[in-house]
Amino acid sequence: MGILSESYHSSRLYRSARKHASYKQQDKRLRETPDLPGNLSFSIRILSNDEIEKCMDPNSLGALDFLRLQYSPPPPLNLVMTTSALDKYDRCFRLLLRIVRMLFVVNHQLPRDGGIPGVWESKSFRNEAHHFVSAVSAYFFDSGIGETWQAFEAGLDGLERRMRAEDDDGDAGDGDSSFGRLVTEGLESVRAAHEECLDRVMFALLLRRRQQAVMRLLEEIFETILAFAKRASAYGSGGAAAGRGYGEQLTAVPAEEAHEVREMYMLFRSKVNVFMTVCRGLTGKRGSRRAAGGAGPGVGLLLGGDGRDVVVEEDNTIDRLLLKLEMNGYYGAPVATDLGA
């Protein structure tokens, strides 16, 4: 079984679906069938020549950009998961794949046990890079995706409860007199709410068109961390290849390499400072506002509203990211380093 199959069969959705009697009858056949729902699988993304060159570099931020998820929603789910929605999922997947890779880099590929010998800035670089990537990933997964998706699921659960209540009233009453009394939404309402949910996720993940400058700053910070990881790895492998012993590997690096690491650290600090300054400027600014009726009937109800005239507004949670990154103005302070060493 592959990673997608294992993830699907261990998911909460799959476990909850198995409780239904109709699903239990098909469970054995589904487990023996290699295809996942909607033929979910990995595929190769169509890239430009410049993007292909980046993928060929294992140390670049876009090294895994060639990978994408392929999914064909079956009817009637295809009326909700439209081509536009699948494109938004793909953009989120591409970013989150980069985030997961950055988490692996800061957890396993940065120097440990005192950093790079002779370059004390490498210790600060390692710790700050780990903190930055961890804070950004926690904000993206928890605030950007988790809270938004939970609100969408809560809306769907409420819709399902009202549908069951109507069915129960219809069974107990005369005919279909209760039909449409509690539920006025249809598939179009679910589609609109789903699109609104994805728009909110993309807004929190800095993937909207008007947020391209902020995302570019974030990518530059990640690229600086990857360059530092490559430099640290090259020094470590070089020492081993030269046949140095453990004690010899702890000798200071050449002055030129130490200077490059210090410059990387100053570049990292300056870019983080600019990134946080831009984020502070975004704090308090509201996302786009539009009437729920313009997005589709019933979207306000699914997203927590109480009618079709509810105003749908994207929540700006960038202040949570700033709080995770720092609380004492650390990144605004000047960088102490010795570039003359």
Automatic annotation (TrEMBL):
> Does the keyword field hold DNA-binding?
no
What Pfam families has UniProt attached to this entry? GCP_C_terminal
| GO MF, one example | microtubule minus-end binding
Spell out the subcellular localization from the entry.
Cytoplasm, Cytoskeleton, Microtubule organizing center
> GO biological process annotations for this chain's record?
cytoplasmic microtubule organization; meiotic cell cycle; microtubule nucleation; mitotic cell cycle; spindle assembly
Keywords associated with the record: Cytoplasm, Cytoskeleton, Microtubule
The superkingdom listed in its UniProt entry is: Eukaryota
Main subcellular location of this protein, as a coarse class: cytoplasm
InterPro entries the UniProt entry points to: GCP, GCP_C, GCP_C_sf
Q: Could you tell me which residue ranges the Gamma tubulin complex component C-terminal domain spans?
A: 1-331
Write down any Gene Ontology CC term: microtubule
Q: Which family does it belong to?
A: Belongs to the TUBGCP family.
Identify this protein by name.
Answer: Spindle pole body component
